[in-house]
Amino acid sequence: MAKPHRYMLIACAVVYRECYHCAAICRNVIDIRLCDKGLHDIGASKMCSKLQAEIDAVDCSRYNAILLGYGLCNNGTIGLRAPIPIVIPRAHDCITLLMGSKERYRQYFDSNPGTYFWSSGWIERGSSSLDNEESTISAMGIRSYDEYVKEYGEETAKYLMETLGQMKHYTKLAYIDTHVGDLPEYKADARQQAIGKGWKHEEISGSTELLMRLVNGEWNDYDFVVIEPGHTTTPSYNDGIFKSV
Question: Model's pTM, two decimal places?
Answer without folding.
Answer: 0.84
